[in-house]
Amino acid sequence: MASSTTQHVLSSIKLLPTGCFHHDRRNSCVLSVSVGRRCRSARNLGLVCASNTQSSVIEPVQLPGSPKSGATPKKSGESALILIRHGESLWNEKNLFTGCVDVPLTPKGVDEAIEAGKRICNIPVDVIYTSSLIRAQMTAMLAMMQHRRKKVPIIVHNESEQAHKWSQIYSEETKKQSIPVITAWQLNERMYGELQGLNKQETADRFGKEQVHEWRRSYDIPPPNGESLEMCAERAVAYFKDQIIPKLVAGKHVMIAAHGNSLRSIIMHLDKLTSQEVISLELSTGIPMLYIFKEGKFIRRGSPAGPSEAGVYAYTKNLAQYRQKLDGMFQ
Fold first, then answer.
1. Residue 96 and residue 294 in contact, taking contact as beta carbons nearer than 8 Å
2. Helices and strands: H and E segment counts in the chain
3. Phi first, then psi: what are they for 213, rounded to 5°?
4. DSSP 8-class letter at 199
5. What is the pLDDT of residues 118-173, one digit of tens each?
6. Which of 23, 112, 147, 189 is flagged as catalytic?
7. What cellular component GO annotations does this protein have (predicted)?
8. Share of the chain above pLDDT 90, in %
9. What stretches of the chain adopt beta strand conformation (E)?
10. Active-site residue, 59 included
11. What's CA 118's distance to the chain center, in Å?
12. What is the DSSP string of 76-109?
C-alpha cells in the first residue's frame, strides 16, 4: 500500500510559493486523499527520547491558570497529544537548508508518514494542527489515512471570514466522519534566512564548521536574516498555549504535524528543558511522540511502536478502552 500511495501522492504534488509567516489562500493547496484501509502490523521503530533522560515519563508540567477563553471548557479525565515531525522532504534528501521554503515529501518521506499513521492508528484524534507548509500537511493527511476510525481530514480555512464560511461543514453526519485540520504559520519551521537553499556541507566549508554549528544549534543566535530557535519558540509556544491547550483542557485529542524546530520548541516547554538541553534535542522524521494531558499536567509516554504491538509506552486505562472499542468495531 505504501508504494502505491507514494506514487499517487507524488504525481499530484506541486511546489508552492507559500510565504514563511503568513498563509496566502491564493497559493494554498489542499491535499485530497481517500481514507485508507484498516492499519496492519508495523515493525517496532524504537523510542525517540524528547530529552536527555532515559525515562519515557517525565516530571509533569503544571499549567499556570486557565485558558483565556470566556467559556468554561468541558473537563475530561485525560487527553492525548501526538507530535509528529514531517517525513523526509526533498531538501532533507539533498542536505539543503530548508527553513520555511515550501518543498514536498520524498517517496521515503511519504512512507515515513504512512508508517507514523500505523503507529498511532489506535490513539484517538479529534483535531489536527499543522503548519502552512505542504510537507507537514501531507504528513498529517497520510498518517490519518491509516487510522482505524477512518475519519476524513478536512482543512479548515481561517485566513478570511469568507474562506471560513466556504470551508464549513453543515451536515452533522459529515462532521462525525471528519476531522478538522487547522493550519498555522506559527508552527512553521524556523526561518533560516540567507542559508535557505544552500547545501549544509558546502556552507560549512565556506563559513567554517563552528560558525555554521552556531547558527544551527545555538539557542539565541540567528543565521543571517533568519530566526534563532528562541525566536521560533516564541511564536510556536505562544500558539500552543493560546490555541491548542484549550482544546486539550476541553477533552479533545490533538495531533500536531510540524517541523523539527517548532516541535523542539513545544517539547522544550512540555519537558521543561533548558536552553542548553534543547539544542541537543534531535527529532527523527516521521516518528510520533505521545503525551497525555491529565489534571493540568503533561506526561510523556514515548513513541507508539505499532498497531499490533504492546508498545514502548504503557497504555493508559482510557487509551486501552479506546483500543478495545476499535477492536469491537472492526472485528
1. no
2. 13, 8
3. -60, -40
4. B
5. 999 999 999 999 999 999 999 999 999 999 888 999 998 887 888 888 888 888 88
6. 189
7. cytosol
8. 54
9. 61-62, 79-85, 127-130, 152-156, 178-183, 254-258, 288-294, 297-302
10. no
11. 15
12. -S-EEEEEEEPPPBHHHHTTB--TT----B-HHH
Backbone angles phi, psi at 51, to 5 degrees: -155, -175
- Please identify which residue in the block is written with the cell numbers 471528519: 178
Catalytic, 86? Answer yes
> Alpha carbon of 200 to those of 98, 288, 310: distances in Å?
10, 26, 39
Binding residue ranges for substrate? 85-92, 98-99, 135, 189-192, 200, 216-217, 260-261
Place of cell 517539547: 267
Residues annotated within the binding site are: 85-92, 98-99, 135, 189-192, 200, 216-217, 260-261
Mean pLDDT value across the chain: 78
Q: What is the pTM of this model?
A: 0.75
Catalogue all structural domains in the chain, each as residue range(s) with its CATH number: 79-329 (3.40.50.1240)
The radius of gyration of the chain's CA atoms, rounded to the nearest angstrom, is 19
State yes or no: pLDDT of 69 exceeds 70.
no
> What is the pLDDT, as a whole number, of residue 270?
94
Residue-level pLDDT at 34: 29
